[in-house]
Design goal:
The complex is a heterodimer of chains A (58) and B (225). Chain A is an alpha+beta fold and 58 residues long. Helices cover 28% and strands 38% of the residues of chain A. Chain A has a 3-stranded antiparallel beta sheet with strand order 2-1-3, covered by helices on one side. In chain A, β1 and β2 form a beta hairpin. The termini of chain A are close together. With 225 residues, chain B is α/β, with parallel strands linked by helices. Chain B has 5 helices and 11 strands; from the N terminus they run βαββαβαββββαβββα. Classes of the chains: A alpha+beta (58), B alpha/beta (225). The interface between A and B is medium-sized, with 10 and 15 residues.
């Protein structure tokens, strides 16, 4: 399953930078796969002190 | 006093800090990022540079490296930890220090000698300085714009956890003397136990009159006390 992750700075951080990732997850269970992506975001892909992220299935 | 300097691929101030530590009679060891054990250390230094190319975010990948788990354990056990520049960014990525370093307000890499003011001199890192003493220390970074949430900012002020602030030559801290847009001109902070210091300026570059000045020396001599 393929997901896109868009990382943007929080609204109260005044800066327009952001990041876009595409991830392919080796898991056919969508809920499980999404959970993995969510974990990756929290652990590394986004810094929650300054950033928000959005996951979409593509 | 035993010190360890962590070396990541892309670290570039590791040798400067080791020269400074040895000059101050620290018994220093260099520790490669793939190590899973730290030598016996009273002080751990996470040096400046561009660890792992600073891909993703400055310090993000170093914050998940093998050796960093040992640094976190040692720090939580009370070991002194100093993060300079990229080292400060790495410490915020690990959560050992709160907040984050954003891109400089002017979106440019800044390399210049700036004035900073000693805010808290009652710590293991700063006891040889006078309160409000003005130092001239080099900064060289692209992401030094300190940011944190309002609750933590209050905590930094109430618990005297701000180590240094950017200022002008008269000690005034305002927008004009703020090189990178940091909240309240913050240049360095402590954790709540004050055994961890993160700072963007480079004290290790200021230990010899021949090439700069000696304003950084007291940080190291404070640690030896």
């Amino acid at each position: 399953l393929k997901f896109s992750v868009t990382v943007t700075l929080k609204k109260d951080v005044l800066d327009p930078q952001g990041k876009y990732f595409e991830l392919e997850i080796n898991d056919n269970d969508q809920t499980q796969a999404e959970k993995k992506v969510d974990e990756m975001c929290k652990k590394l892909l986004a810094n929650l002190i300054i950033e928000d992220y959005k996951i979409n299935k593509i | 006093m035993n010190s360890s300097v962590i070396v990541f691929p892309g670290s570039n101030c590791d040798r400067d800090i080791s020269v400074a530590l040895e000059k101050m009679q620290f018994n220093n060891k260099m520790v490669w990022h793939k190590e899973t054990k730290l030598p016996k250390s009273d002080l751990i230094v996470v040096p400046g540079g561009f660890s792992y190319g600073d891909y993703l975010r400055s310090g993000a990948i170093a914050g998940k490296s093998l050796i960093i788990n040992e640094v976190i354990k040692a720090a939580n056990g009370g070991c002194l930890v100093l993060g300079i520049c990229n080292g400060f960014q790495i410490l915020t990525e690990t959560g050992l220090l709160k907040g984050a370093l954003l891109r400089n307000k002017n979106l440019k890499f800044i390399n210049k000698d700036v004035n900073i003011k000693v805010i808290n001199n009652d710590t293991k890192f700063s006891n040889k300085y006078k309160k409000n003493q003005i130092l001239k220390i080099n900064i060289a970074h692209n992401e030094g714009n300190y940011f944190t949430n309002p609750i933590h900012l209050k905590e930094l002020n109430n618990e005297n956890l701000i180590a240094f602030k950017y200022c002008d030559k008269d000690g005034k801290t305002n927008e004009n003397s703020n090189p990178n847009g940091s909240l309240e001109n913050i240049a360095g902070i402590f954790n709540s136990k004050k055994n961890i210091l993160g700072m963007m300026p480079h004290p290790e570059r200021m230990v010899d009159d021949l090439i700069s000045n000696t304003d950084g020396i007291n940080l190291f001599s404070s640690l030896l006390k």
